[in-house]
């Protein structure tokens, strides 16, 4: 993102899931960089999350950081994490639903019902439950400034929310559905002052991508076919999330932004 000033966000509280590494971690740092007042970072891996929190406190001592446990496969854990954030900070202005899992990379005939439901539960149902809780809290608050939205939500889809790949039915189905979740609630709550958008990354160089069970030849095929001929970096996705969370995108809702190096085009 171009250098356009560190007060792009005018304070407020950001809530991020899957913040212990990769895109979620990069997003937390970008929110701090661009002017958020408080960060509620959440993950199932508290040990790694505490390390991220300490780095944030060291680099941005003026930003309040709260560490929250969340298991996005469990409804009560999602409810509890959001309530804890609101108890600490009083509101949620920017939400990023980033938590997810890769795989299993199996064709339907080799996939069990349990494997399919498990992937859907985290990558789709978990996103919807987080979005539901965020909307519930945002409806109780006013915008940070006169005329500002009550809150913004950015959901993590994928280039595979638009494209399909062999043996990718669980992940691909969930990421297609995330776009539907985004668009439907964007329509329902737009007139309530809540904006909801999605980001669709391609292959981003994160721990999850690098340890993915997907076939290595598939990763190589991506690198040879993507127009920009490289993996994306987490901060390149985080920059788009900041844009979608900021007043610069105030007339955008129900849309999704590709961050895939042009992979969707080929």
Automatic annotation (TrEMBL):
Keywords: NADP, Oxidoreductase. SUPFAM superfamilies: NAD(P)-binding Rossmann-fold domains. The keyword Ion transport does not apply. It comes from the Eukaryota. GO terms for molecular function: oxidoreductase activity. CDD domains: SDR_c. The keyword NADP applies. Pfam families: adh_short_C2. InterPro entries: NAD(P)-bd_dom_sf, SDR_fam. Belongs to the short-chain dehydrogenases/reductases (SDR) family. This is Uncharacterized protein.
